[in-house]
Amino acid sequence: MTKAKKRADVFLAPEDDPREGGPTLGDERATLVEYLRYQRLTLELKCAGLSPEELARRSVPPSTMSLLGLVRHMAEVERRWFRVRMSGLPDVPYHTSADAPDADWDGAAADPALVEDAWANWRAECAFADRFVAEASTLDVLGQTAQGPVSLRELLVHMIEEYARHNGHADLLRELIDGRVGQ
Q1: Which of 52, 66, 161, 71 is nearest to 110 (CA)?
Q2: Are 22 and 142 in contact (CB under 8 A)?
Q3: Rounded to whole angstroms, how far apart are CA atoms 106 and 103?
């Protein structure tokens, strides 16, 4: 018999949820930006209140996935898409390299300085992306990938999907750590 989820098992009371209250009748740009904001905040909520040891805790062997790894990975994803592919800036990764393409996951260790650095990098990349989107003249602005051009519109949809997928992982990782479940 499974125990019923108690209110204490969830993250926040609905009235305290910072994800609520965004635009609901916005135009296309406002809608996409709001959905991306919501997904980013969800990742932050899943990591809130955890120690470096808990953030670095791996899921199940042989996986190297952890909440800290997710934050590091999403900083790399934001950087690669907005700075490199959309803005054409040099590709200067935080963690990964040709020799260590999974370093964002593999290097996620229970070190307070590493945790602080991961959050600072992620927040800097989110801020850069937000400025890029706000300053773009249209959602048809193009970036370049190895497969060809990509519009800002397509990128925003991709980023929402990327966060949503990884937030599903974060739900399971957080439940493994302390039993808190999702919203």
Answers
A1: 52
A2: no
A3: 5
Residue 134 φ/ψ, nearest 5 degrees: -65, -35
pTM of the full structure: 0.88
What CATH number should be reported for the domain whose range is 7-178?
A: 1.20.120.450
Single out the residue of 163, 176, 159, 181 nearest to residue 55, CA to CA: 176
Residue 160 near residue 38 (C-beta atoms within 8 A): no
How many Å apart are CA 116 and CA 122, to the nearest integer? 10
| Model confidence pLDDT, tens digit, residues 105-145 | 999 999 999 999 999 999 999 999 999 999 999 999 999 99
Residue 20, both tokens: 């609520």
d(CA 11, CA 30): 26
Tokens of 85: 């592919």
